[in-house]
Amino acid sequence: MMTEEKTLLSVEDLKAYYVSQKGFVKAVDGVSFDIKEGECLGILGESGCGKSSLALAIMGLFNRVAKFAAGSSNIPGLRKKFEKGQEEGDRPGVRGKIIFKGMDLTTLDDEKLVEIRGKQISMIPQGLTHALNPQYSVGFQTGEPVEIHDEDVRLIELKKQVLEYLNLVRIADSGFRFVLDPGSFSGGEAQRILIAMSLISGPYLVIADEPTSALDVTIQRQIINVLRMIRDDFDVSLMLISHDAGVIAEIADRVAVMYAGKLMEVGDAIQMFHHPGHPYTMGLMSSFPTIAMMRMKAGGKRPRLRGIPGDPPDLTDVPSGCPFHPRCEFAIDRCIEEVPQQREVESRHWVRCHRYEEIKE
Hints:
It is a single chain. By secondary structure, the chain is α/β, with parallel strands linked by helices. It has a single domain, classed as Rossmann fold (3-Layer(aba) Sandwich), CATH 3.40.50.300. 38% of the residues lie in helices and 22% in strands. A hairpin with a 2-residue loop joins β11 and β12. α9 packs parallel to α10. The radius of gyration is 21 Å and the shape is globular.
């Protein structure tokens, strides 16, 4: 359950940029939020808004992506500029602060990050087809995080631990199936194996990147139940990334809505789903049948489903002012010309909108 005590992770003005063949990509652009001990924060947004880039930045892996992209781009001198780490203007890489248990992860070297990654912070990656290595057994891969951080672990103890966690996520007949390769398991089982891998080293924070995508509804329910167990029984903080508001609504204590690399709104889950403050959040909540029915059961009006007009912007060419203004029914000239700042409109409720007070009324 969520605790009120300490802040486990605090992200301050985080920026994560890289270059692509189409141009300069501001995947994460000035993002700030925190996660308390034992809390589940849901990161909600459409595909391509920067959610996975945010996860990679926290894990300390984004710079590798940015470095590779800079080297393979057609922009003259960009790789050289990246290597020098020049600060003037926009440049590829990560800037800002990622404070985890009092340490700023952006200032740590690779050796120190390796000690933290997989041990104190772990990640359930997106994409089942490439997350597991087809050449190694699931038992070997599940126990690998323990071996990396404890070279002296005894093989018999490691095997017992692997079987314990595979049983925990309900892998049937794990006692003999742990020697099989990933191709012998279904999509839902592969996802649960990845969850076991993320838990086996006893992390404080687990980042789950689209853990229910590409799974049918029945299997999604099983994965959600396992994630809820992680939060409640292990007292682990969880950062749940998804484009599905229904999944976020199941287990998140707080929700952060992301659009075009920025957080549009951050607040308590119940408030966000029943009384959203940003026009983009309103549009998201009106487009999911699960959320509409949840509102009706809570005493709201009969749901009217409607989508958000238009498409998300290309992150190499983000609109001026508020990035949502081309799709927003409340947009005025100020929204086109001036970038709104993220401000706390109520206790622990942040909104990035010029017209929040008018729309609320």
